[in-house]
Each structure stands twice: as structure tokens, then as C-alpha cells.
Amino acid sequence: MLSREGAPGSGKTTPKHQALYGWRTLDGGFEGGALTGRKYVRFVRPVQVAARGNFVFVVDAGAQLLYRYDLSIDQLKVVMDLKGVTAGEVSDIYVYQDHSFLLVDPDSARVLHFNRNGRLIRVIEDSLNLIRPVAVTYDEQMGRLLIADGSSDDILVFTSTGQLQGVIGSRGLSDGRFLNITAITTGGAGIYVTARLGHRVQVMGRDGSHVDTFQPDTVVFPLAVAVDRGLNAFVSDYLDNSIKVFRDGLFLESIGGSGSGPGRFKLISDLWYDGGFLYAVDSLNGRIQILRVEMVEAEVPVEMADEVVAEEAEVVPLPAESEGVVTEGESDNAPASEEEASEIVPVDESQSAQQALETAQEELEKLQAELESARAELEAAKDKQEGDAQLPAAPQSAPSQMDATPDLNSQE
Question: pLDDT, tens digit, for every residue of 73-94?
Fold first, then answer.
């Protein structure tokens, strides 16, 4: 079982079910074959991951390569040399069911679509509105691309062929607005957006409306987000190298922490859910940690216990195959069969109870200090926004496509 903690600053959340279990670690793989010879190649600095069934795609910024790892035969293959293909470091990857993929290149203000063999299919760009793309996902329910722009802090909606249709959200601190978007994904509840400031995690409807804001003061610096079929959301926190687990916007538990051992992380730069497994990029440790997702049970916060009926929430199982909305990274195939998954042994805890308590106290004190700093930063951002609001608004340009298609942004 991976290490876990309660809600930051409270110590009151005690989940009835562990959400994530250690399953496998990928720090590289064997390249070559019987004729050319096999050699083990280690990742240098992986930054992005996506998975479909037995195939795991890894963007290694240190080696400037895109790898595809086959879990069934433990074989690593170079799909693409990124040198000369992208202007800078890839900030996100999305892999379709047919194993074609999208790469986000912020420095060239483009999103590149390649087939499964690495041949360029199309370039998605818009000089007026797509200034600095930072994240991408494909909404299979609506059949459209969603690209987060880090310059204007909004989400641009494109057709699958790259035609701009509209925009969702805008820059700001209120509901449905974002400040420094870091990641996006889709799930049954809508579009999940993480941001550095303001509301850290929000859910937007596919019509552009604001649906939900996650419990505040639980994530300080979100870098990545993934959603499973049970609508559990997993958010990586740069501050304490943990994965925060949410259900219906309510914080359930914090898993992981800083370190190099199993279930510990150094910079979780990306998350991806597929077929009952969560893939976490442990970037500075040079590896991908694959975690088995268990069913989790929502908890009522202690401070709300007197206001609700004392009964247990429904436990939502995660079957290998089920009907419903397909979410990002979802596939009917899993890296292991149900029989194999049942035999997986959770990661053992090596610390004594006393050591664990001392470590938790130290991390809590550090987190409280960082939260105070973050609040001060947020107040400064609010003051700046109020000052900017008094200035005359500059005219904004809009693409011709927006004239023919309704704006999806419900915010004024």
C-alpha cells in the first residue's frame, strides 16, 4: 500500500479504502532484437505519458525522444526523434484509440498530429487565438479537440480536423475562470481544468458552463489531472510530490510524497488513466510508476458530520469493461488480466509508526507554510486584477470561425 495522508492542515480525513496500489515501475526497457542484439535503455527525463492497453507512450525530454513501450513483451521502441520536430519541450501528449497521437509544442504555438508510426498528419494552429498551447485532450463524447492556451488562460475548441469552433472560460479568479492553466482532461462530469492560481481545480460543462469547483486548500500547485470511470479525479501536487484523490470535488486522500522509493515521487509532471491503471510520470526519478486503481468510498468531512445523516457512501467498483462515457486515456484493455491484477501485492510500508508520525508532522508544517505563501500570492493576484479592471478594456481579436459558430463561453 502506498503512503497516504489526510486533508492538508486537518488530519481528519481517514478513507475507508486505499485508492492506489503500487503495481509496476518503468525506468526504461530493452531495445533491439535477436538479430541486432538487445540492450537496456533507461529514460533520462520523462515528462509526459499516455497509454492504450499494453502500449505506453513516453515523452523523454532528456533524450528528446518519443518512446512506445509494449508491456506484454517488455520491449521499448523509439517512435520519433523530437529534435527538429518540435521547437521546444513537449508540454503534453494525447494518444487516440488507433495509436495516432497529438504533441503540444508551446514554443511554436502548435499542436502536431501524427499517425502511429510518427508521420505528420496535420498541424493545428491559430495565430490570433492559440498563442501558447500548454495542454490538449480529445472529447470523445463531442468529437472535438480541447486545447488550453497558457497566454489567454482559456480553452479553445477545435474540430477533429483543426477548425476553431469556440472558446470555454477566460482569465480570472471567479468560477469558470482560470489563472495559469496547467492541465486539462475530460470525464463523465465534463472538462477538468487545473490552474496554478485562483480555483485550482474546476469542472466545466461541455456547453462552457461552470459545473463544480474542487474543495479549496487541498492542492497548492496542480500539475496534472486524470479521471477514472468511477469519476474519481487524481491531481498531482508539485508542492509535496503527492497525488490528491477527489470524488465529486471532495478531497479523499493524499498518496505518495517526496522520495525515490516505491510510491514516492520527484516531480509528477503528468498523469494518465487507462483500463484500471494510473500512469504517473516520476520525472526527476527517471521513471513511470504504474498504479493500480482501487474502488474508493467518499467520506463526509468531520466538521460536517453533525449536518448529515450518518451513513456510508456507495462504493463504486472499477470493472475492466463497462458502458458509459469514455474518458481520457480510457481503454477496454488493461496492462494485466483480472487474474493477474488480483495477485498484485501492494507496496510494503518500511517506516515504523513513530517515524511515519514524525514525517507527517514535518510535512504538515511545511505545507502550512507554503499555503500561507500561496494565499499571499493569490491576494496579490486579486489586487492586480482589481487594478486592471479599472483600465479601459483593449479590443480583442476573434477568428472568422467564431462568427459562424456560437461562443461556448458562458462567462461575460
Answer: 999 999 999 999 999 999 999 9
